[in-house]
């Protein structure tokens, strides 16, 4: 089964995302992580790589930028699509994300309908249309 990993420290946003994901009944599994350390530990221990990673930038302990950099220099992990999912619309954050080889940068959708649209987009594009070598 295809898996989407959401790295997001805001418990309300995590819950909101999970509820909408479950409501859509997609053929994928959503795993959530509240911090970069638990996320990186999971990746190191998991044999099956995720289909896509949704990564917040402002995380406790280790920043999303640091996580992105680690992912993109690791030969095993660098091909996993990483979508930055941030509340920041600051041009330096966007530029730095792409300099670190993010595959996409999205400002967090606001509201149930917009979140559902985003989840559908992720599912359709990154899990169905996108091809990974």
Automatic annotation (TrEMBL):
GO terms for biological process: phosphorelay signal transduction system. InterPro entries: CheY-like_superfamily (IPR011006), Sig_transdc_resp-reg_receiver (IPR001789), TCS_response_regulator (IPR052893). The keyword Phosphoprotein applies. SMART domains: REC. Gene3D superfamilies: 3.40.50.2300. Pfam families: Response_reg. The modification 4-aspartylphosphate is found at residue 56. Residues 3-123 form the Response regulatory domain. Keywords: Phosphoprotein. PANTHER family: RESPONSE REGULATOR RCP1, RESPONSE REGULATOR RCP1-RELATED. This is Response regulatory domain-containing protein. The lineage of its organism: Bacteria, Pseudomonadati, Bacteroidota, Sphingobacteriia, Sphingobacteriales.
């Amino acid at each position: 089964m295809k898996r989407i990993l959401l790295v997001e420290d805001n418990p309300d946003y995590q819950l909101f995302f999970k509820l909408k994901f479950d409501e859509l009944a997609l053929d994928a599994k959503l795993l959530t992580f509240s911090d970069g350390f638990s996320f990186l530990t999971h990746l190191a221990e998991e044999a099956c790589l995720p289909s896509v990673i949704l990564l917040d930038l402002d995380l406790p302990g280790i920043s999303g930028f640091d996580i992105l950099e680690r992912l993109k220099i690791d030969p095993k992990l660098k091909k996993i699509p990483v979508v930055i999912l941030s509340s920041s619309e600051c041009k330096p954050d966007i530029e730095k994300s792409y300099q670190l080889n993010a595959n996409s940068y999205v400002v967090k959708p606001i509201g149930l309908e917009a979140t559902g649209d985003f989840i559908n987009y992720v599912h359709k594009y990154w899990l169905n249309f996108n091809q990974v070598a």
